[in-house]
Design brief:
The chain has 129 residues and is mostly helical. It has a domain of 82 residues. It is built from five helices and two strands, in the order αβαβααα. A two-stranded parallel ribbon has the order 1-2. The chain starts with 28 loop residues before the first helix and ends with a helix.
Amino acid sequence: MYMTPKGTPDPEYPTSSSKKGIRKDKRNLIDVWMKAGQDKESRYVWDRKQFDEINVKTTDRLLGLFEPKDMRYEVFRNNTRDPSIVEMTEMAIQILSKNPNGSFLFVEDKYLCLSEHTYTTHALCVRYR
């Protein structure tokens, strides 16, 4: 996991030896993010159940980390465990739209580009539907 110190178990896969934190600087960036927003209603979620429980009216900041490293192609996503990029984007827009000063949201789907380069046609078609 990119966000936690080397060896930290991932909350979704706590017994997996291959899905542990990899940061060599020993910083837990989830904790850093949570502490930076102590004056706001901040939430960290890592599965669909927690994501679905978010109240966008009372949540000011949301950090969702649904895989230890990269999200899966949409066609391979576990719908019961992980929200889609569309669902995540919609929730982000709802939370950010509460800011009267405006906001900026950048949504990146690296697998869209990768599926074009690796000729993963089925994954690419699912992205463009």
